[in-house]
User: Fold this.
Amino acid sequence: MTATVGTEEFAANLALGHLGQPEIASMSDTTTRARKVRQFFPVARQATLRLKPWNFATGWVQPAQDPVQSLGHLKLRFPMPAECLRVRFIKGDNQREWDVESGAASVGGVDVEVIILVTNITDPTVCYTKDVRTPRLWDSLFLDAFGFMLASYLAESLGRSRELGEQMRQRAEGAVSGAATIDAKERRQQCRPETSWEAARRGRGFSGRRLW
Assistant:
């Protein structure tokens, strides 16, 4: 039975199809294919999310400052949310006066291992990439890239060649590059001013009066 779109099984079967492997019916199957998919699924998801700022995985936060300062020249430490995979930028910071480190920080009075933003900006508003685990929330372009990325991890472990795995990785990166090009084109279209012809099509001229 074909897996439902928006499920982990559907995403996994895309990867298996790239390798010429039979589909799985469920992620909980006991087959070697299903066990390998379970092993590499989260790794491939996070690897693909890290490759570009996906719109669906963008998050914003104003993190609370950790009471312990960093030993480096960037003193202030801000623990990021547990879902944070990658810090993208700080709003209004044109000099990139920040870095990241991993380690223990106090979150709600409890020491936890998290990604920590270090900066000298006292009240940063941070854009970051979230680890979106639910496939039904994924962008279709991301799903395409993820299928190739997962295939790259699965190839050798399912008896295919290392070279095929490398080809799948290259196709994943190519799909991400294509998605970035589409995003850039859409942003240009959204930002460009309306032409006089388009205004006329809406029934208005330069003066704002209706033409007919």
Observations:
- Residues 141 and 179 are 6 Å apart (CA to CA).
- Strands lie at 58-61, 76-79, 84-90, 98-107, 110-119, 126-130.
- Residues 162-191 form the longest helix (30 residues).
